[in-house]
Amino acid sequence: MEAALTAIEMRLASEPDSIDLQADRARLLTELGQTEQAKRQYLEILTRDHTHLATLVDFSVLLYQTGFTSAARTASQAAIAFHPDNPKVHANFADLLVYEKKLETARAHYEAALRIDPGHLNAHRGLALIFWELGDEERARHHQSIQFENRPLETLPYLGTGEPVPLLVLMSARGGNLPWRELIDNCVFLVIAVAPEFYDPSKPLPQHRLIFNTIGDADICRPALEAAQALLARTTAPVVNSPSAVLATGRMSNAQRFGRLPGVVTPRIVRITRSLLAGPDGPVALAVHDLAFPLLLRRPGFHTGQHFVRVDSPGALAAAAAGLPGDELLVIQYLDARGHDGKARKYRVMSIGGRLYPYHLAISEQWKVHYFSAEMSGNPEHQAEEASFLCDMPRVLGPKAMRALEQIGDALGLDYGGIDFGLGREGEILLFEANATMLIRPPEPGTQWDYRRAAIGRALDAARTMLLERALVQAEAHA
């Protein structure tokens, strides 16, 4: 890529007005990690031609990846306005809409892409994810099979100059994966991403020195994790996040095994058919399991508050259950994680290589707490409380909670995972979930988030270092 960049820059010396060459230069700068130079190049192109297709598409992707989601949306919308018959612009815009949970609008744009190009793989990928979210498993599998049937692996660009370390990244075609790209240095690793469900078990695995299993959701990814186990039986390479350890991290399994740890409170969780909960005998079914109101209903396998509601009384149960997709629902005892001010708090700690790293504290008036929707931005009081947690986690949580977290981390058995929890009135851990799906994302641009950067940077560095060290040990053994 560096040679290609040099060649393009030599051509630009003799063809300085070539917008296509400038766009190629910006794309290569992006792939080489020189994002600020790439942004300047894209902006220079758009001042000359605000309709340039490749620039609008690639610039929107770069803006999204660097945290400028509003600007990314503007660029994508411009691409659609100027190039409505191009499938890539519709699929690209739909990707941004999925991130914002605007699934119906995203679906319309993916389908527009397929009307133009029925074989557009990115549109099939997006529709598979959307139909999984909407509970339409038949159509999800249809689009998933088109995406992966003849393409179960993908080799990503390697940006290093020395001999690469070949790394297999296992990913579920269904979703439920850890967002892993921030964790892997593509100047060190040559990444081969594999969907185990669609990989022919009679074929040898691609050359590799390390395996990173990023399949993280045990509630929806059991087929992928079992397929991954079968593949790993054919290799002696070290594995980060063993599929067997991930399989044990479903919500019900976690509640049962971690509830026995001292200092840990887990909710009672039962799986009940949605039709029963939506019918007249729903309250009776809950009473059999000793579940009292308020309680939570959740469709298994979804995160960020998707298909997740609170039910405060028996009279509200039927309508709440009927409004959720799927044949079965998890009924979850409500754990009260409100502080002295009446606001709910959710802490997240990452467990990486056997050590705990504070990641965030989200504070909200609402019971359903996620950082992206919590009352953190522009709230100095909440930010100061989070800063205290990030700077001195043991002091803020107390010895009882720290001992409990350490035991949870040990019992998880994951090389990389996250723990979401609240604090009880006696300093105990109120465990919400613990699994391998939790990402580490650098804070958004802006000085108000500077207090978060050091702690998140330490967690990110720990994950990257762990992968490098595992690869180094294998390289020494290989030598």
- Name of the CATH first level of the largest domain: Mainly Alpha
CATH superfamily of the largest domain: Tetratricopeptide repeat domain
- Structural class by secondary-structure content: alpha/beta
Mean of all residue-level pLDDT scores = 90
CATH topology of the largest domain: Serine Threonine Protein Phosphatase 5, Tetratricopeptide repeat
Helix content: 40-55%
> Mind summarizing the main beta sheet?
5 strands, mixed
For the record, give the distance between the C-alpha atoms at the N and C termini, rounded to a whole number.
29 Å
Q: Could you name the ranges where pLDDT drops below 50 across 5 or more consecutive residues?
A: none
* CATH architecture level-2 label of the largest domain: Alpha Horseshoe
Strand order of the largest sheet: 1-3-2-4-5
Question: How many β-strands, per DSSP?
Answer: 14
Number of helices: 19
What would the principal axes of the Cα set say about the shape?
Answer: globular
Rg result: 24 Å
Percent of sequence in beta strands: 15-25%
Query: How many independent structural domains?
Result: 4
Summarize the structure in words.
- The structure is a single chain.
- A five-stranded mixed beta sheet has the order 1-3-2-4-5. It has a five-stranded mixed beta sheet with strand order 6-14-13-11-12.
- The two termini are 29 Å apart.
- It has 19 helices and 14 strands.
- The protein is an alpha/beta fold.
